[in-house]
Amino acid sequence: MKYYIIAGEASGDLHGSNLLREIKKIDCDFDFRCWGGDLMQLQGAKIVKHYKDLAFMGFTEVLMNLRTIFKNIDWCKQDILEYKPDVLILVDYPGFNLRIAEFAKQNGIKVVYYISPQVWAWKQSRVYKIKKVVDRMLTILPFEKDFYKQFNYNVDFVGHPLIDAIASFEIEKKKTFSDFTSEHKLNEKPIIALLPGSRSQEIKTMLPVMIDAAEKFNDYQIVIAAAPSQPVTFYKSITGSRKIGIVQSQTYHLLSHASSALVTSGTATLETALFNVPQVVCYKGGKISYFIARQLIKVKYISLVNLIMNAPVVTELIQDDMSANRVGSELEKIIISDGANRLRNQYHILKTKLGGTGASAKAASIVVKTANGK
Asked: Which phi and psi (to 5°) does residue 248 adopt?
């Protein structure tokens, strides 16, 4: 069968690739045409548009790139009509994907949405559109099923695919402590991992503050998780001559060795927690974008860890609170005091809430059945 998949970010590429791997186990006559990245390509997908060309951060950047966004939407619609998929699979990325879902529905194409848009955080009115244009909604966060139930919309909670991704990594991991970076020779000092996001704009904003905070700890070494969509030279332009390690496309190897981490809000906060790494969550955006977001977003927390636990488990430093002094102070609490043990105890509860392994396989089963018209 023919599957058309759209993922507009690095996390979508990860989850999409795991989904494709499981679909292949059920449907040996698969054909994948995707908007995604290198991980989906490794699963045999033809990538027609890479997510690095789609990632626009914040309200102002979106406004500045509206012409490109609408051009991509028009091209995508035409490509879907020419490809004639048995099912359209949308992975998060709601501003773009909900427009495509509406188009697909109008043209008689079945739509599965894998990884719900965060409508519980803002734009709850999108639920009414989702009910009209999405045949099956597959959610990965435990509270989402109850959220949609308020709108009389039945969704499938399949569990979180990160649990599967990390379990697979632990089984296949072969690289040793000294192998996973070549930027400078690692020593035996414990590692402070810096995860500054994947978009150039957020990296430029977040990374210098993270470095300044982490450099205060002389008994630790600093290693940056570089996004696959950004060249290593981009990170070197920020680190300069400082002895800071850089790993690219090997975030899991880094987290498996890290003793603590500074993490930009997003999927990485959950990944860090699932590796049992104590963390401080950071976020700083443009003043206009942040002001608009404050008016629209309806949740108490920005990190997935705190949202799932419905409690301030990890410290979140947002906007003006994200200074080198404040970040350093919170980092000290999880390095020197028993804050690390407290976090790891909470991480254990978090994993239980996420529902165990098998999310990608459950999602793949629903996708294939939907493609078959069942």
From this structure: -120, 135
Beta carbons within 8 Å of 253's beta carbon, 6+ residues apart:
173, 175, 180, 247
Q: pLDDT by residue (tens digit) across 90-126?
A: 998 888 999 999 999 999 999 999 999 988 877 888 9
CATH of domain 2-159+358-371: 3.40.50.2000
Q: Is residue 43 a contact partner of residue 21, using CB atoms and an 8 Å limit?
A: yes
pTM of the model: 0.80
Angle of CA points 25, 28, 29, to nearest 5°: 145
> Which CATH number among 3.40.50.970, 3.40.50.2000, 3.30.720.200, 3.40.50.1820 corresponds to the domain 172-353?
3.40.50.2000
How far apart are alpha carbons 197 and 226 in whole angstroms?
Answer: 8
Domains 2-159+358-371 and 172-353 share a fold: yes
Residue 92's SS3 state is coil
Which single residue is written with the structure tokens 């035996």? 188
**Angle value at C-alpha 95, between 129 and 43, nearest 5 degrees:** 105
